[in-house]
Amino acid sequence: MQTRTSCAKGAADRPAWSRGALLRGFWRAPVLAASLGVGLLAGCALPGGQGGSTRAGVELPMRVADAPKPSREAQSLDDAVRDLTVSLFDRARIDPPTGSGRYDLVIDPLIDRATGSQNTTTRGMETRMAEIVRTRYPDFALRPFGTESLAQQPIVLMGAITAVAGPGIIPASSNARPGTYRIWAVLGDLRTGKVVSHETAWVRAENVDPTPTAFFRDSPAWAAETITEAYLQTCARDPGEPIDPRYLEALQAQAQLADGIRAYEAGRYEAALVSYEAAAAQPGGDALKARNGAYLSNRAMGRADAAEQAFGRVVDYGLDHGTLAVKFLFRPGTTAFWPNREISGDYPMWLRQIAERSAPRNICLDLNGHASPTGATAWNERLSLGRAQTVRQELVEQRPVLAQRTEAQGLGASMPLIGTGTDDLTDALDRRVEFITEACPIRQAAR
C-alpha cells in the first residue's frame, strides 16, 4: 500500500490569489461515464466488512482498512476522479451514523484554487462523485447543499483543483500552460466539527477545462475572499483535524449563495436575488459573490438603477478590502474595449461608479493592467500598461481629482490566474485591471 501523501500546511495550500494557471482541456463525459461504469461494476463491489483504526483511544471504523490510495502518477480525469472518490469514502475514519442508519451527505461546490471559482471541470467532478456515491455507498444519502440539509449536521464533501509542476507534487505552480493538475477532496463531519477523510490525485492537463460556469463567467469583479481561504484551509487538513471555524461560521450563508448561483444559472433571477440578499444578512455572507450576484440578477431583470447601486457595492467591497480586479474586456491586441454591447455596454456605468466611490475617500489607486500569456513578454507589458492607462483616463474624466491620486502600470502576463491564452471569456481574469488602494499620505511621504 502506498504511503499517504499529506497536504502540506501553510503557504503551499493557501489560495494563490495572484498566481496560478489552468490549461483548457475537455471534459469527456461519455468516456468518463463508460470508464466509471466498468470500474464500478467490475472492480468496485461493495465492501464486505469493516476495518478499524484507533485514534485518541477511540475505535473509528474504516470501510476498507487496506483500501488502495490514488496513483501518484498523472491520470486521465475520469480515472483520477474515480480513484479519489473511492479512496475518500473507503478510507474515511467516521463515527457510525445515527437515527436512520444512513449518513446525510452534501457537496459544497468544488472550486479552482487560484480563483475560488467553479468551472467546467470542478462541476463535472461533482457530478461524477455524486454518481459514484449513489452507486457504491447506499448508506450515504446525498442531499442538496442548502440550509435545510445543513440543519441535519451532514457529512460535507469539498475539494479543489490546482496546477502543479508535475505528478506527485503538492504546491501550486505559477507557470502558464502546466502539464499536470492536482485534485483533492475532504469529508468533514459537522457532528464533530472535524475532517474525517482527505485524498489527493493528479490529472493530465489535456483533460482539464477551466471555463468558468455561468455565474462566475458573468461576474464583473473578482477579489480574494475570507470564506474561500477558510474553505481551502479545511481542504488542506488531515483526518482528525478541525474544520476551519471561519468555514463553519459562514456555512449557512454559503448554502444560500449556492442556492442563488443555481437559481441565476437556471434563469430564475428573482429567486436568485432573494438568496443573495439572505446570504448577505448572515455571518460571512456579505462577500463579493453576494454583491456580484445582486448586480447580475438586477441587470438580468432590467432594473438598471438597482443594478448600478449593486455594482457600487461591489466597488465598495474592493476599496474596503484594498484590492479589486475588474474584468474589462479589450479587443485582442488593442487598448480599446470589446465592441459588443452585450459585453461592454455597462462599462461606462462601471467606470462612473469606480470614480464616484473612490473620489470621496482619502485613498490613492494603483491601476495594474494584466495580459494573457500569449505574445512576447515586452509586448504584453506594453499592452497591459496601455489598457490600465485607458481605464485611468476614463476615471480622471469622471472625477478630475483622481488625476493626482492614480497611477497606471503594466504587469504583462506575470500573474496569470487562468493561463490558457485563449483570449476569450474563459481567461478574462488574465486580462483584468486590478485596483490596489493605499493611503495617499503614505504614498506622498514615500515620494
From TrEMBL:
Signal peptide: none annotated. Transmembrane segments: none annotated. Keywords: Membrane. This is OmpA family protein. The keyword Membrane applies. InterPro entries: OmpA-like, OmpA-like_sf. Residues 317-441 form the OmpA-like domain. SUPFAM superfamilies: OmpA-like.
